[in-house]
Amino acid sequence: MRKLVHRPRRLRRSPALRNLVRETALNAHDFVLPLFVSEKVTSRKAIASMPGVFQLAPSEIADEAERARDAGLQAILLFGIPTTKDEEASAAYAENAVVQQAVRAVKSRCPDLVVITDVCLCEYMSHGHCGVTRLDGEHFHVLNDETVELLAGTAVSHARAGADIVAPSDMMDGRVAAIREALDAAGFTDIAIMSYAAKFASAFYGPFREAAESPPQFGDRRSYQMDPANADEALREAALDVDEGADILLVKPALPYLDILWRVRERFGKPTAVYHVSGEYAMLKAGAANGCFEERAAVFEVMTSLKRAGADLIITYWAKELAEWIRE
Ligand code: PBG
Question: 253 preceded by cis ω (within 30°)?
Fold first, then answer.
C-alpha cells in the first residue's frame, strides 16, 4: 500500500494540536452589543420575541454599559425609543432626546467605551419608515434628499453628545457624504462613520421592530432596502459608501449573506462589520429552547463562521455572554 504523506487528521488528534493550528479565534473585542434605551419605561422591560433582551430606562443605561465594559466589550450600539413620534422625526435630532442623553450618561460613566449610535428615523417617525414620506393616494414615496438632511442633523447631534461612531442604517442615497460633510463642518472630523453599506430587505428584522417599536404603519421597506437576490448591487452600494467616506462597512443580516460579507471584505479591504440581527437571534434562541442544539455551541459556531467569512466586528445580542464565555 502507498505510504500517505499528507494526513490531515494528524493535526486534529488532540485539543492541544487543534488549538495550535486553529485559524479563527473569537475575542471579546470582536463584538458590539446593541442596547435599546426607551424614554417610555422607568425600569427594564422584556422584549417578548427576544428572550434575554430588554428595553432599558434612561436611568439604567450607564449601568448596563458599565456591565458590558466589565465583561470585556469595547463597544456598544445605541438605539432609542422616544415618547413622542411625529412626521419630522424631531426626537431623532433634538439636543436632549433619548439617544443624546444616553450617550452623555454612558460617556460620563465609561469614557473609554466606544459608543456607536444608530442614525435612522424609523423609531422617531409616526409612520415608522426610515425617512420622510409622501403619500400619493395608495402609493407612498420616501423623499431621499429631505431625509438625508435630517439624518445629517441627527448624526451631528449624536457627535455633540459624545458618540465615537455614527451608524446610518436608513439606506438613503448619498447619506454618507452628507453626514461626513455635516460632521466636518461642525468640527467633528474625528468621528467615524460605520455605514450599513449592504442592508437587505429581510424577514429577519421582525423582533427588532418590536424592540424598537418601529414597524412601518403602511407599505414596506423594499424601496430603500436591498433585494436579497442581488450581490453585485450590494458591491456597487458598498463602493458608493467607500467613495463617500465610510470608515467601516456593515453587512446585514449575517448568516444568509456570508457571501456578501466575504466579497465586501475582499474587494474593499476596509474594516467590515456584520449585524447578526434580531430574527437570527430569535431563531437560535428558539432552537435551543426546543432542545434542537446546545445554545452556547451553536452561538460559537455561528460567530466563528462570521469572523471566518471576513467580519472584523460582529454586532450581536449575545455580545456580553460571548465575552463572558470566552473568558471562561
Ligand atoms: C432600522 C434598523 C433595523 C435594524 C437596525 N436598524 C430594522 C429595519 O430596518 O427594519 C434591525 C436590527 C435587528 O433586526 O436586529 N433603521
Answer: yes
